[in-house]
Amino acid sequence: MAEKIATRDAYGKALVALGARNKDVVVLDADLSKSTKTAKFGETYPERFFQMGIAEQDLMSTAAGLATVGKIPFASTFAIFATGRAFEQIRNSIAYPHLNVKVAATHAGITVGEDGGSHQSIEDIALMRVLPGMTVIVPADGPEAEQAVYAAAEHDGPVYLRFGRGGVPVIHGADYQFKIGKAEVLRDGGDVAIIACGVMVEAALAAADLLAAEGITARVINMATVKPLDAEVVKAAAVQTGAIVTAEEHSVIGGLGAAVAEHVVGNGNCPVPVEMVGVQDVFGQSGNPAELMKEYGLTAADIVAAAKRAVERKKK
Amino acid sequence: MNCLELEKMAVTVRRDILTMICSAGSGHPGGSLSMVELLVATYCTQMHVDPKHPDAPERDRFVLSKGHAAPCYYAVLGELGFFDKAEFKNFRQLHSILQGHPDVKKVPGIDASTGSLGQGVSIAVGMALGAKAAGKNMKVYTILGDGELQEGQVCEACTAAAHYKLDNLTVMIDNNGLQIDGTNDEVMSLGNLHTRFETFGLNVIELPDGNDMQAVVYALALPTIPGKPKCILAHTTKGKGVSFMENQVSWHGRAPSAEELKVALKELGDGKIE
Question: How far is B84 from chain A (nearest CA, A)?
């Protein structure tokens, strides 16, 4: 079994390291610092940590104000509150003036688990992706999450970082170099391309193994930056494999699948069948993460089935 | 600037506001006219800003939380020379730097994009926090409308301002008593605002006439209580200076016709003080 690290833990660790090398980095949290893992930064750099209380709207606009005076604020809370409750503050206080705020949200997706549907953010990628100038990053594992934090700090402009609650297997080595807007081809294959982000990257790799056993070769792409989408890699996948499966722990509406589909039929001008694995326009519920992933069709087996459908469709 | 000069500037600003809105054919005269003294006094007697260097990092900051009063903001910045006053005629037009609500990316001298009510105090709190964290002696000012106080975020922001003891922050309330659908009391009563802001932990200074330049200048100059954000609760007149606009809900968001503008400018006079 591969080592497991929660991307929120990697975020917390990266923040402390970042704080040492960049004095402009400040962190804000809304009474969830133990869960979002920003608490360690707060203990290490108390003068640069701002506890804002249970007030997410204020959290986002205050982060905007800090950015206007040259700080690099990381504003953290759960994804559901960051992008849902404070959507318009992110839109108008942060994205509209294109401020250098990093909205770093944890507990995204249905793997939040037992807290249930009220706390499972399945629309945050869509909400952030629609904002002009917003960069959207969904790391697949701990090492990538850590790199994404550093890259976000270097990037001038608003960034949405999506982290999960539970441990995910480590798939990247210590030498891995994350770059905003660059997709990673983890495995090559010619029959179908699986484009995944976040926890679904591991599932995509497992699916590729299962498909290989049936004689179908799958290209596996980690699309950690959902916006800006790596258009070249998507186009190459479409042209060279002729069939695409997208996989994300998010609604099939508006997220990674939508971004890929928009590109292949739009600017990419490379229309191919696209099958989307994700939450099918329903809310989640309480349960343990593994049960929920099965319940909502987010397993390697679901990706395999989608890949077969996509391959079948391209034959027609 | 002495008080007479400030009053003269206020007349000019009011003339600019009305001319700008008339030329655009839309905009918000009532709430722009009510806050003229607050903004003129803030910029001309308190703030350290330089129109030649609008982005100087050490400058004081202003956030117009009630962003719809942009014409007043543009008029003051234009009069101070942050940009060419010829821009006034482009207010609300395609490709203009003078958007319907302030856009920090477009206008020299503007420190924050606003327009969606309730967010400005939080932004100002962020600025004040950042200044303190960096050990900078920067002052931050913001003006809110009274209807805006119905937004819950204002409570969040004032709570934080007091919690972080932001004595480099001045929150001004342009309490003209009217909002789009009627009086504050008809729409959603605000209760005792003096008590409300005092309860948050702000140092409240109440001005019975927030359109009295001398009183506004005096309130702004009052020494800060260490560890306390200052709150100037200014009772103002919506549409101040134009008889047919004063205390009229209907003038919240409509432009004067050319004929109405003529009458209004005549009433205001040319700003020359005998």
Answer: 22
In B, which residues are within 8 Å of A73 by CB distance? 126
> Is B163 contained in some domain?
yes
User: Catalytic: A56?
Assistant: yes
Which chain B residues touch A58 with a CB distance below 8 Å?
A: 122, 125, 153, 156-157, 159-160
Cβ-based contacts of A92 with chain B (< 8 Å): 113-116, 119
Range of the domain at B147: 3-268
CATH of the domain at B252: 3.40.50.970
Q: Is residue B274 part of a domain?
A: no
* Residue of B117, B156, B159, B165 best to disrupt the A interface, most CBs of A under 10 A: B156
Q: Which residues of B touch A89 (CB under 8 A)?
A: 119, 122, 153
Residue B185 lies in a domain: yes
Report all structural domains of chain A as residue ranges with CATH numbers, in order of start. 4-169 (3.40.50.970), 184-315 (3.40.50.920)
Say if B133 is an interface residue toward chain A (CB within 8 Å).
Answer: yes
E strand or H helix at A274? strand A274-279
In this structure, is residue B273 part of a structural domain? Answer: no
Q: What ipTM was predicted for this assembly?
A: 0.93
Asked if residues B29 and B18 have their Cβ atoms less than 8 Å apart, the reply is: yes
Compute φ and ψ for A250, nearest 5 degrees: -170, 165
**The two three-digit tokens of residue A74, written as one number:** 């990381």
The amino acid sitting at A9 is D
Global confidence as pTM: 0.95
* Interchain CB contact of B123 with A (< 8 Å): yes
Domain count, chain B: 1
Flag if B129 and A58 touch (Cβ within 8 Å): no
Per-residue pLDDT of chain A (316 residues; tens, 9 = 90+): 679 999 999 999 999 999 999 999 999 999 999 999 999 999 999 999 999 999 999 999 999 999 999 999 999 999 999 999 999 999 999 999 999 999 999 999 999 999 999 999 999 999 999 999 999 999 999 999 999 999 999 999 999 999 999 999 999 998 999 999 999 999 999 999 999 999 999 999 999 999 999 999 999 999 999 999 999 999 999 999 999 999 999 999 999 999 999 999 999 999 999 999 999 999 999 999 999 999 999 999 999 999 999 999 998 8
| CA Rg value for chain B | 17
